[in-house]
Design brief:
elongated, about 200 residues, 6 helices, mainly alpha
Length: about 200
Amino acid sequence: MPPTVIRMPGSSAAGPRGGGGHFNETQNRGIRIGCCRVCTCINLDFFMSKNGILKIFEIILGSFCQTLLIQFGMDSAKDIGEAFHGFLTTVSACLTTTTILLLCYTISSRTFHLVRQSIFEVMYNGISCFLYLSASSYMGFAVNVWLYPKFLLFKNTGGIHSSYPAMTAVYYMGTIVGIVYGLDAFVAFRYLKGYT
């Protein structure tokens, strides 16, 4: 098996893949206050790149899904069944991994380049896309079959059953997060192949 060579870009050259995620480490590190820079271990320009924006969207939407599941779905978990537990597991796993990746990329641009050149990001984002889309479709089925009749019953009798609108929002947002992960997998694949 021939040895594998991983090329790291220079700090001043953008290289053939420039623009998509390379940063000038000497100028864009930290927070500028007057003529000084503080917190130079933080790479804030990552948040403005397309990769950083995708990660932020994944974390924000995943956090909304998890909050709605815990806040409004626990009481209806016995009615929804495995759809609730499957969605909660998907959200927890993907949210934890994406948060760790975002922290690593924020602290070290070299980590971003090393991980992005491997197959990990493509596989992780592709699997996350599949998990979110399948969990959202199963949740949508369970919510419309089991919670919607209860929602109509409570609405007609004057009671309040808030699980149905919240769980409906969860599977809609889960579909959007799945699409964002799919887009991130596509961007990672293009980066891996050297298109950007």
